[in-house]
Amino acid sequence: MSESWKNWSGGVRCNPQRLEAPANEEDIARSVRAAAGLGQIVRVTGAGHSFSPVCRTEGTLLNLAKLGGVAEVDKASREAIIGAGSRIADLGEALLPAGLGMENQGDIDSQTLAGAISTATHGTGLRFGNISTQVAGLRLVLASGEILSLSRSADRDLFRAAAVSVGLFGVISQIRLRAMPAYRLHERTWAASFAECRESVGRLIGENEHFEFFWLPKQDACAMKCLNSTSEPVSAPAAIVEAPPGTVERYLHPERVDWSHRI
Fold first, then answer.
1. What's the DSSP call for residue 2?
2. Alpha-carbon distance 229 to 258, whole Å?
3. What is the pLDDT of residues 35-82, one digit of tens each?
4. Where, residue-wise, is CATH 3.30.465.10 in the chain?
5. Is the dihedral of CA 244, 248, 251, 254 positive or negative?
6. S-S: 109 plus which of 88, 139, 173, 196, CB 3.0-4.6 Å?
7. How many separate helices (H) and strands (E) can be counted in the chain?
8. Secondary structure, 3-state, 185-222
9. In degrees rounded to 5, what are phi and psi of residue 251?
10. How far are the Cα atoms of 20, 42, 128, 184, 224 from residue 94, in angstroms, in the given order?
11. What does the H/E/C string look like for 106-133?
12. Is 246 helix (H, G, I), strand (E, B) or coil?
């Protein structure tokens, strides 16, 4: 009997014949070879955060939750070896003791690292690429079970294709992530009308390292947010009042400074 699977919202569902959670690279290779022998299509799920049916299959679905954690951090090269199933939310605190941080990330951090790079997930800011641009190397399990180790410098075209492949070339098992010296961000949020937002959005994108807004049409309101790196110390935690869902206040926070991943 097949097991059911759904993404985070429940908008994408499927009943794969085999739902497996490999614990290492060898497990992935065995699962992929077995699926090939049965003529099954293999899909891979991380956090199931994608809105699209990229993980949906009636064949074999691999869940990489057990392939998590930071295996190695090289302070000199500012690179870290990270398991493909690691959640972005867990990386900041793991890198901080080594004095490192991710170059950029989105304000939603529940995705796995492999899923985020494979689907070109991004943060904000004109001067930043998506998360895949932070990857220096990766290990890939092919449909044959063969394992490739790819690097940005040595395997340029194949690496670039595999990094944002939506799983087309194989299963990413491990990632070598380029980090940067840990840094703090200053966050400021405020409310504006849609007209005010539309008039100022170009200027705000240009003036800030990071800018975004959330539009709430029923209120004719936009929750505006800008982030900029700073040398200011971490600010004392402020009390955050829970606002009702569907209101602009829900997206507003007291002005604050903290390490980048916490902001």
1. P
2. 10
3. 999 999 999 999 999 889 999 999 999 999 999 999 999 999 999 999
4. 70-181
5. negative
6. 88
7. 5, 16
8. EEEEEEEECHHHHHHHHHHHHHHCCEEEEEEEHHHCEE
9. -105, 5
10. 27, 31, 22, 16, 30
11. CCCCCCEHHHHHHCCCCCCCCCCCCHHH
12. coil
Fold for 70-181, please state it. 3.30.465
Angle, alpha carbons 97-100-105 (nearest 5°): 120
Q: Indicate whether 197 pLDDT > 70.
A: yes
Backbone angles phi, psi at 149, to 5 degrees: -110, 115
The domain made up of 5-63 has a fold known as: 3.30.43
Spatial separation of the C-alpha atoms in residues 43 and 249, rounded to whole Å: 39
Q: What distance in Å separates the CA atoms of residue 175 and residue 70, rounded to the nearest whole number? A: 10
Domain with CATH 3.30.43.10 in the chain: 5-63
Q: Which two tokens stand for residue 212?
A: 């975004």
pLDDT digits (tens, 9 = 90+) for 95-141: 999 999 999 999 899 999 999 999 999 999 999 999 999 999 999 99
Q: How far are the Cα atoms of 41, 220, 234 from residue 238, in angstroms, in the given order?
A: 49, 27, 12
Give the Cα separation of 24 and 156 in Å (integer).
26
